[in-house]
Amino acid sequence: MDPLRIGVMGTGIIGREHVALIQSSPDTTLAAIADVTDSGRALAERHGVPCFADYREMLDQGRLDAVIVALPNALHVDAGLACIERGLPTLMEKPIADTLAGGLRLAEASEAAGVPMLVGHHRRHSPDMVESHRAIQAGELGDLYTVSGMWLCRKDDDYFDQAWRREPGGGPILINLIHEIDCLRFLCGEIATVQAVTANKARGFDVEDSFAVVITFTNGMIGSFVGSDAVPSPFIWDVASGQSPSFLHEPGNCYVIGGRNGSLAVPGMELWRYDDNGHWRDPLVRHRLQPPRTHCYPEQLSHFVAVARGQVEPIVSAREGVMTLAATLAVAKAAREGGTVKVGDMLC
Ligand SMILES: NC(=O)c1ccc[n+]([C@@H]2O[C@H](COP(=O)([O-])OP(=O)(O)OC[C@H]3O[C@@H](n4cnc5c(N)ncnc54)[C@H](O)[C@@H]3O)[C@@H](O)[C@H]2O)c1
């Protein structure tokens, strides 16, 4: 089969990663770039492909089989609709949209036109997540009761030079927690309600630097998640998993999932159980689960190729992306207004 001809919209931080991945896969070829900057044009020149300042022109003239959208969030809906209108399968970076209404428009358009959209929640393709999901589904933890998680990282001071990152909406709930929410939904099931508090003790900006969330799941599980972008630590998936291009690997854990038969620490993949369902004073036995030796970003691209060729349905469809966005926005609302927010109410 000929390599899939992919156009990339937006060649900033993550768009450049996508370009490199496309160029290193035998199943894909970079067909064109859409970006408005000189650096985007220079990147296109280096790869010998056309660069379009107007992404619609790329869609019409680029002879594309598929598109990756890595534009700022506010452009996702218009760009996604333009791809769907032209029948082009799309990998849409997360979040699917900057509003729930926009995300729902994309989901409805994708479903109505039968044009698949994969949302770029790359961790779903990560070996630790895939193996944890398998073990949970296989009943190795038994009935699930609890989950706890952490995302503790210190962002550099110059990260906050851009004003929007110091303002509500530019903080770790909407930028970072959305990944955790997607993983929790994948591993533990649909989120029913959230409560949340935030603090800005570290920097005193209007935006939160730390948050704590209490979660209930529709299957009866309960959980908590604590995060901060002001704390240096290895207790963050990006560091602990070794799967992120931006962080050095420091093996460890950031989630513990608890069930009737055992507890699983992720991404270290330690499953703690009593042998033979023993007494609580019996020795606990540590089993090490063995995830495949894969990497999430190339896996995501391979999956996208199969989606674009109509071989499989997207693992994270537009509708899935909307559910993750809804639960994340529910956390932001709970932190803002207090009380308990039902995720289902976000979608009404
Ligand atoms: N999955 C991940 O690991 C991951 C990581 C980072 C960012 N993201 C997501 O990817 C998206 C992009 O984030 P980023 O950090 O790469 O942003 P960025 O600001 O670094 O890059 C955005 C690019 O889009 C270009 N652009 C802006 N308007 C344009 C237009 N109208 N037409 C063509 N190009 C235009 C900009 O010139 C820039 O090159 C966001 O949705 C973000 O949430 C995902």
List keywords for this structure.
9-stranded mixed β-sheet, single chain, 6-stranded parallel β-sheet, binds nicotinamide-adenine-dinucleotide, alpha/beta, Rossmann fold, Dihydrodipicolinate Reductase, domain 2, 35% helix, 2 domains, 15 strands, 348 residues
What features would you describe in this structure?
The protein has 348 residues and is α/β, with parallel strands linked by helices. The protein folds into two domains: 112 residues, Rossmann fold, CATH 3.40.50.720; 190 residues, Dihydrodipicolinate Reductase, domain 2, CATH 3.30.360.10. 35% of the residues lie in helices and 23% in strands. It contains eleven helices and 15 strands. The strands form two sheets. The chain has a nine-stranded mixed beta sheet. Strands 3-2-1-4-5-6 form a six-stranded parallel beta sheet, with helices on both faces. Strand 9 and strand 10 form a beta hairpin. Helix 5 packs antiparallel against helix 10. It starts with a strand and ends with a helix. The mean pLDDT is 96. The protein binds nicotinamide-adenine-dinucleotide.
